[in-house]
Amino acid sequence: MTMLTDRYADEREAIDTELRSAVERLPAEASRVAAYHFGWTDAAGRPATGGSGKAVRPLLTLLAAKAVSGGWRSAVPAAVAVELVHNFSLVHDDIIDRDTMRRHRPTVWKVFGTTDAILLGDAMHALAFELLAGTGGDRAAKAIGQLASTVRSLIEGQLADTRFEERDRIGLAECTAMSEAKTASLMGCATTLGALYAGGTSSQIAALRDFGLRLGLAFQHIDDLLGIWGDPDATGKSVYSDLRNRKKSLPVVAALASDRPEAAELAGLYARPGPLDEIELRRAAELVEACGGRSAGEVAAATLTASASAALVDAGLREEAVAELNELAMSTVGRTR
Amino acid sequence: MTMLTDRYADEREAIDTELRSAVERLPAEASRVAAYHFGWTDAAGRPATGGSGKAVRPLLTLLAAKAVSGGWRSAVPAAVAVELVHNFSLVHDDIIDRDTMRRHRPTVWKVFGTTDAILLGDAMHALAFELLAGTGGDRAAKAIGQLASTVRSLIEGQLADTRFEERDRIGLAECTAMSEAKTASLMGCATTLGALYAGGTSSQIAALRDFGLRLGLAFQHIDDLLGIWGDPDATGKSVYSDLRNRKKSLPVVAALASDRPEAAELAGLYARPGPLDEIELRRAAELVEACGGRSAGEVAAATLTASASAALVDAGLREEAVAELNELAMSTVGRTR
């Protein structure tokens, strides 16, 4: 299939230009750390390529705007605001989770220390609101209200995630709620803001919001599958990464909640003190699969993607952009990183 | 003199009510940690009193609004937004500085861990913008733009502060710039937002902004004096707290920059590896004083306070509220904690 990264060159360039110019407004030290985080420079500040994210969220904003009005330029600040919030949360979450690698490179706190990572996150967080404020008027106030309450959801999700680590049994419903708060909410906000800046009606905004939310949850299911069975060369994480960290991700929680006899063995591995060795990790992955955790994740991702597309039917949106959104959704489900 | 805390009962109550209702919107776990941080509960969640801050910044917002229009109710969300940003930065700075005590109680990261402290800070940061966004219209967008660029200043100041720790010689000008970014900018923002929400003219807003900025810098000079000579029972910090942490605060930088022979001995104590003992700490305080660091701070604070008051003269502001702002300024310079 066509790689997502080959498409939407104009939109990607507009996002990149706005993001770079926003980052230049940061204090010099924070701007330098941001340039590393976004993959524009290496740790020594020399120009670099690669290491940028997939920019799915800002693309969602621009495609949502196109679906309403055909244009997307007015939504660029909102797209970049969403990308800044996403990256602020990544930088802080990496400190919290003590993750050392992201996008095939050492994380910000690992290279520059916790102080700079906290402050870069804070700076990107404020910058997102500053960008939206700069668009002026009541629309800016509405967009900021949406984005700020989404940050509240992100934090709720991250708090739940850290609390899950300390608990033995997690229900599938609360695990799904956590994923909605942690991932789906920001993708729902991305499409909402695109529709808002394109002047969408409330029913157009609601349809695009539902699309973003459902796609976001599908996205998290795929992410959780890649966290176990993803190719390390593609994901940039270690093999069996989530099992190594004993993450209670969706496939693991689904497996533990099953009535299969293998669930008890999996629970035992997760409860055992000390790190799991390579043989135990491979066994844990087999157990998740045997308990139906892998197929549950695949089915959920496919169902949610279809349901995301369904949200756009008969919503009075432009056909060409709807096709692009559906294509983006399909490539998200088909992704390998 | 009349204690600041005895005055403005109506304004304080309105701030407290709005702050508590805002904090209730946070995710339950974050709300619980916030209640501890604001001194409403103890670490176990039992109701407590004391430990709240002085609420100088939100009071500045409300008094600035009064100076413009006589009323202050419409500025309450802005006052609370400023207080939330102040507290978000305190919670994150305490992690960065590894400070274990604030307002006579263990800091948030010390009680609840770094994860909860990072997330509470992030949550209060977003909540501040959400409150302003809720006031709606272009005024909200303007206020958010001001507050977001102030957060940028706070981060710039905090970055400079941490970089200073690694450097031997700091100029008085760059130290002042750091204090302006770290402290004065938010007090300037507090009065700006008050004036904005009261519908002030651009010259009224500029006068109140100058008042806040100058008072903020005076405030930092006093803070730095208390960081060396403050009574631990009043400040809630250890005796010679800033010297113990080898902080390059304004009086220390002024002393090191002097041509007094004692400056070299002070520089030697600051450069020496390992913690300073009580005798060395007392000696360091004597050296700062002998080099004129203490009187420089006292003169600067008094001069800046007078200059803050001067900014309000002939600015077309209401006399009664101007008198209250001046009184607040005087009590800030006269404060002992």
Plain-language structure description:
Two copies of one chain form a homodimer. The longest helix of chain A is centred in the middle third of the chain and has 29 residues, at 137-165. Chain A has one domain (10-333): Farnesyl Diphosphate Synthase. By secondary structure, chain A is mainly alpha-helical. In chain A, 72% of the residues lie in helices and 1% in strands. At the A-B interface, helix 4, helix 6 and helix 7 of A face helix 4, helix 6 and helix 7 of B.
Features:
mainly alpha; 16 helices; homodimer; 337 residues; Farnesyl Diphosphate Synthase
What is the CATH homologous superfamily assignment of chain A? Farnesyl Diphosphate Synthase
Treating each run of at least 4 consecutive H or I residues as one helix, how many helices of chain A? 16
Name the overall outline of chain A: globular
C-alpha termini separation of chain A: 14 Å
Question: Considering DSSP H and I runs of 4 or more, what fraction of the residues of chain A is helical?
Answer: over 70%
Which secondary-structure class do the elements of chain A indicate?
Answer: mainly alpha
SSE order of chain A, one letter for each helix or strand: HHHHEEHHHHHHHHHHHH
CATH class of chain A: Mainly Alpha
- CATH architecture call of chain A: Orthogonal Bundle
| Beta-strand residue fraction of chain A | under 5%
Give a quick account of the main beta sheet of chain A: strands, pairing sense, barrel closure: 2 strands, antiparallel
**Radius of gyration of chain A, CA atoms, in whole angstroms:** 20 Å
Oligomer: homodimer
Please tell me the total number of domains of chain A: 1
Q: pLDDT average of chain A, as an integer?
A: 94
What's the total number of strands of chain A?
2
Residue ranges of chain A: pLDDT <50 for 5 or more in a row?
A: none
Considering residues with a beta carbon less than 8 A from a beta carbon on another chain, report the largest interface and each chain's count.
A-B, 45 and 46 residues
Strand order in space, largest sheet of chain A: 1-2
